[in-house]
Amino acid sequence: MPIMRPAFFADPKDLSLRAEQEIFLIGDDILVIPAFAEKPNLPGGIWREISLVDGDQQDKYQATLKIRGGAIVPTGKIIQNTTEESLAPLTLLVSLDENGKAEGSLYWDNGDGWEYRNGEYSLQKYSARTEGNSVTVRLTGTEGSMETENKGMAIVKVITDNGIRQASGNLEEGITVRL
Predict the structure, then answer these.
(1) Helix or strand or coil: residue 136?
(2) What integer pLDDT is reported at residue 151 of this predicted model?
(3) Residues of the chain under the 70 pLDDT cut
(4) Which residues, in sequence order, are bridge partners of residue 169?
(5) Residue 59: what pLDDT?
(6) CA distance to 102, 131, 139, per residue, from 134 (Å)
């Protein structure tokens, strides 16, 4: 589960971020800029705007969300309770770094009990690499004995400075998105 963090965690060497009180991170890869923020001091590097819910970017009261360059962030559909499948479909948001690469992971368990101690969990690792005019996203590693709801299938959305490109398929085979 991603943890809410102060903005200076994005770049601990940038002392100006230590005084920033309006923006924050969710995990290492999502930057949240509340609508009330006035001239926030943003961390350096690549940060591309994303949308998680249709219409959120048109609502003046909604926060702006940005994804870090070099990150792959797994998302699922909105659910109403814990018995619903949230990873069907699994969507991977990909923001490439300056070298055309990105990495990310997804941890999954039952959410109840201690079975994860006996290996009943799933940790999936992903990588994205630019090859010519396309990006290929692959499942690069797994741990644990649990199978996730998506069974290796995913939608990949590559967030670029010129919009979003997407494709779907099997992560073990690799999903190629044309840019």
Answers:
(1) strand
(2) 83
(3) 1
(4) 154
(5) 83
(6) 13, 5, 17
CA distance 161 to 141: 29
**Would you state the pLDDT for residue 1?**
62
Q: Which pLDDT score is estimated for 142?
A: 95
Decide: 23 and 17 in contact? Cβ < 8 Å: no
User: Which tokens sit at 56?
Assistant: 């959120």
Mean confidence (pLDDT) of the chain: 93
Query: What's the chain look like in SS3?
Result: CCCEEEHHHHCCCCHHHHHCCCCEEECCCEEEECCCCCCCCCCCCCEEEECCCCCHHHCCCCCEEEEECCEEEEECCCCCCCCCCCCCCCEEEEECCCCCEEEEEEEECCCCCCHHHHCCCEEEEEEEEEECCEEEEEEEEEECCCCCCCCCEEEEEEEECCEEEEEEEECCCCEEEEC
Cα-based distances in Å from 167 to 40, 45, 154: 34, 26, 9
pLDDT at 135: 98
C-beta atoms surrounding 131 within 10 Å: 10
